[in-house]
Amino acid sequence: MELPDHDHHRYFVTYSGVKLPLKLITPLEVDEINNRNTWFCGYYDADGKMLACEKRVYGEVEFSHRYEYHNSGDLKSALIMMEGEEPQRLEFPK
To answer: Following DSSP, what letter does each residue of 9-24 receive, concatenated?
Structure first.
């Protein structure tokens, strides 16, 4: 699954909860990530639905998620990739 268009991404301090897709919270401006060791980047479609997110530590991707949705807008699948581990796909039947 390709990384979404970079025109629709935002930076955050962290996320809340355990439900997928992750809920990224505490927005950061682009210039604020230069002074941080850890941050999250969320990639969104034109309607604001999260398509992917990454946790970055010292600029390197520590983990990433890629999301697909049913036509209804409910989560269809999540591809979870952790550094040094095999990717895991979770399916959410309609």
So the answer is: EEEEEEEESSSSSPEE
Handedness of CA 7, 12, 61, 67 (dihedral sign): negative
pTM of the model: 0.88
Among 65, 45, 66, 68, CA closest to 55: 65
Output the pLDDT for position 46: 86
Residues facing 66 on adjacent strands: 52, 79
**Cβ distance 54 to 44 under 8 Å?**
no
pLDDT at 1 over 60: no
Structure-token pair, residue 36: 């941080």
Tokens representing 70? 């049913």
